[in-house]
Specification:
The chain has 15 helices and 13 strands. The chain has helices at about 20-35, 55-60, 80-95, 110-120, 140-150, 160-165, 180-190, 215-220, 220-230, 245-255, 270-280, 290-300, 310-315, 330-340, 355-365; strands at about 15-20, 40-45, 70, 100-105, 125, 155, 175, 210, 240, 265, 285, 300-305, 320. The two termini are about 25 Å apart. The chain binds uridine-diphosphate-N-acetylglucosamine (UD1). Uridine-diphosphate-N-acetylglucosamine binds near residues 21, 241 and 294.
């Protein structure tokens, strides 16, 4: 899509941006400046992740302005959380009437804000559209499929995401923009990464950097125990940055604390510190979508403790290998060894070139509701 002409005069329409989790705050940090070039914005943080480590630290570090509206919903079972966010976000949207609503990814916040906008007659723009794990029962898959169906504009991060949208008959609303997580990484690299303050190893030691946070793993005591024991048995030191959910589950299982073989646990890191930890690692072990791509972009081999990934290009290009968490005891050591030895010269261009936020804003300028002057209500 082409850049629309922006008249110099007239009232600027405003765009709402709904989000609420760690990876979404990171992406909002780059989306907001691009949107604000053209429109005013109304930021709505649902409070889905209310933990300081996960969100407030990121706001500060990435200089994301405090949200205009903080819904403060906190944790709840999926249906309850969806209903709470939808109701609270709907009330804001009906009162403020933004011209469009931008949502990111596949969280409960994504779906609930999108439903609220649809019900208020406000066009939805979905960032990270077209990703599929093809596991229909997974909450994130349900969220992203429904959001894609109800959105007016779909911003796909990759060729394969575009192809998925085409298969589902949604190509007419889709455009390939690249991945705004790469914009965030580029920006962070240009500003400089930060060495984590709490680091259990001596400088220069080779290590694996690990993150685990997905509910399918952390909420299954058997799988979580297997994964932790497999990390602890690796032949190199492992630094595991603990998401608060994971920390809580490990404490309940009595699995936290020093002295577990190779494993060293640290508090969840800030974004700039997490990137530095990835960049300095010999190998990354994760179940995070964001960390998989960051390792891919930075040329660090990755082992993903999942049976599938939405970021399939990282696997087919040889940057990432999947290990079923239930088989981690037997398969993780070989996968880590193979990935450490593998060539690192993979193509890094699957998710665009780091200008996704600008591409999205350009595409959004074609939405009738966002053209200047304001279209009649
Ligand atoms: C996934 C889900 C998303 C869900 C989120 C919950 C997909 C496609 N999306 O995103 O629906 O809301 O999990 O968290 O699976 N990072 C830090 N500090 C750390 C570790 C990581 O800042 O200690 C950064 C990473 O550098 C990365 C981001 O956090 O930029 C990744 O966030 P993460 O919470 O792992 O979410 P995702 O798996 O990307």
């Amino acid at each position: 899509m082409t850049r629309a002409t922006i008249p110099k005069t007239g009232t600027r329409p405003f765009v709402a941006v709904g989000y609420g989790t760690r990876p979404q705050v990171i992406k909002v940090a780059r989306l907001l400046p691009a949107l604000r070039e053209r429109w005013d914005t109304l930021t709505i943080d649902t409070g889905q992740h209310y933990d300081y480590e996960l969100n407030a630290l990121l706001y500060d570090q990435l200089q994301v302005p405090r949200p205009d509206v903080l819904l403060g919903v906190g944790s709840a079972p999926r249906d309850e959380q969806l209903a709470l966010i939808e109701r609270a976000c709907g009330a804001v949207l009906r009162q403020r009437r933004p011209a469009a609503m931008v949502v990111i990814g596949d969280t409960n916040s994504t779906l609930a804000c999108a439903r609220a906008a649809r019900d208020a007659g406000i066009p939805v723009v979905h960032v990270e559209a077209g990703l599929r794990s093809d596991v229909a029962a997974m909450a994130e898959e349900m969220n992203r499929v429904e959001v894609d169906r109800l959105s007016a504009m779909l911003c796909a991060p990759s060729r394969l995401a575009m192809a998925a949208l085409e298969r589902e008959g949604l190509a007419g609303r889709a455009c390939r923009t690249g991945d705004v997580a790469l914009d965030a990484l580029r920006f962070a690299l240009s500003r400089g990464l930060r060495a984590p303050r709490e680091w259990p190893l001596a400088g220069g030691d080779a290590y694996a950097f690990a993150t685990l946070h997905r509910a399918e793993l952390t909420d299954d005591p058997r799988l979580l125990s297997i994964a932790i024991e497999a990390l602890a048995a690796l032949p190199l030191p492992v630094v595991l940055a603990l998401h608060p959910r994971t920390r809580g589950r490990l404490a309940a299982l009595g699995l936290q604390g020093p002295g577990r073989g190779s494993l060293h646990c640290v508090t969840a890191l800030g974004y700039l510190e997490a990137l530095a930890a990835v960049q300095g690692a010999s190998v990354v072990v994760t179940d995070s979508g964001g960390v998989q791509r960051e390792a891919y972009w930075m040329g660090i081999p990755c082992v993903t403790l999942r049976r599938e990934t939405e970021w399939v290009e990282t696997v087919s290009l040889g940057a990432n290998r999947l290990v079923d968490p239930g088989r981690a005891a037997t398969e993780l050591p070989a996968a880590v060894e193979a990935m450490q030895a593998a060539p690192r010269a993979w193509d890094r261009g699957s998710y665009g070139s780091g200008d996704a936020a600008l591409m999205m804003a350009n595409a959004m300028a074609d939405l009738p509701a966002l053209r200047y002057p304001l279209s009649p209500a």
